[in-house]
Design goal:
Blueprint (H helix, E strand, L loop, with lengths): L1 E5 L2 E8 L4 E5 L13 H4 L4 E5 L16 H14 L5 E6 L1 H12 L4 E7 L7 H17 L5 H8 L2 H6 L1 H12 L3 H12 L14 E6 L7 H10 L3 E6 L6 H4 L1 H21 L1
Parallel strand pairs: 3-4, 3-5, 5-6, 6-7, 7-8
Antiparallel strand pairs: 1-2, 2-4
Length: about 270
């Protein structure tokens, strides 16, 4: 557990393992805690660096507005500041989009990308809903939306079988800084990286649940098809919070892919 300054923002990160660097970036409302079920296994193969986005977790919340380009600059600052060199990337939800955008703009720095429930664009109704959510949390606090967001993000079967994990995710959302969360909501509301996908040179694995409402199967397949070396894996009976709902499926797909991407680097 450590802190560094990235673009003038105090940024919290955790580091485990050794070998090729693998940077983990959480989605909207998350923190490094999102990866609690998978980070140990990933650290057996890689030098894992998980960090909290600006406005999230234990990182600083500077004034908004934020932008996807700014978050990509933060990621680059972390990579450069820690001297990571060429990296593997894994991002969930909004940060799945973030790591795809970063791979498109910094191809020389990226060995491979895993996007977990990663949208490339948001439908108009979703954009408006995110802007309303931002206004709500800024005026009423995180408690006004946390339960609904968690419910929509997890499959009914998971919520019923693991109520303690569902409540833990609600608490994770409630702990967010309302201003930071609102600013990040607006980043997602403006999200559209579809035009950047063809510039990604690194291999990409997209993985999402069959019940994911943020990155539905058809949309995830379309995104994968637009990436020169992209593929899509679907997890059954799972919604959007895949790292908590089915970490075993995530690890099964991601570890093999990441090892292949790392091995390709070694052969060059």
């Amino acid at each position: 557990m450590a802190e560094t300054e990235v673009d003038g923002v105090r940024t919290y990160y955790e580091e485990r393992g050794s070998g090729t660097p693998l940077v983990l970036a959480h989605g909207l409302g998350g923190s490094t805690e999102l990866w609690k079920h998978v980070v140990g296994a990933l650290a057996e193969d890689f030098r894992v660096v998980a960090y909290d986005l600006r406005g999230s977790g234990r990182s600083e919340t500077p004034p908004g507005p934020y932008s996807l380009a700014g978050l990509a600059a933060d990621l680059d600052g972390l990579v450069e500041g820690l001297g990571l060199g060429r990296v593997l990337l894994m991002g969930h939800s909004m940060s799945g989009s973030l790591v795809l955008a970063y791979a498109a703009s910094h191809p020389e720095k990226v060995l491979g990308v895993v996007g977990v429930g990663a949208p490339s664009e948001i439908p108009d109704a979703g954009r408006e809903g995110l802007r309303v959510r931002a206004d709500t949390v800024e005026s009423q606090g995180m408690g006004a939306v946390a339960e609904t967001v968690a419910t929509n993000g997890m499959a009914p079967s998971f919520r019923e079988a693991h109520p303690e994990e569902f409540r833990a995710f609600v608490r994770l959302l409630e702990a967010n800084d309302a201003k930071g969360y609102g600013a990040l909501c607006r980043v997602v509301a403006d999200l559209d990286i579809a035009g950047d996908l063809g510039r990604i040179q690194a291999p990409v694995l997209l993985i999402a649940g069959d019940k994911d409402g943020v990155a539905p199967p058809a949309a995830s397949q379309k995104t994968a098809d637009a990436i020169p070396n992209g593929r899509y894996v679907q997890v059954e009976d799972c919604a959007h919070i895949l790292p908590w709902e089915n970490p075993a499926a995530l690890l099964e797909a991601a570890r093999l892919f990441l090892r292949e991407a790392d091995g390709a680097r070694a052969r060059v």
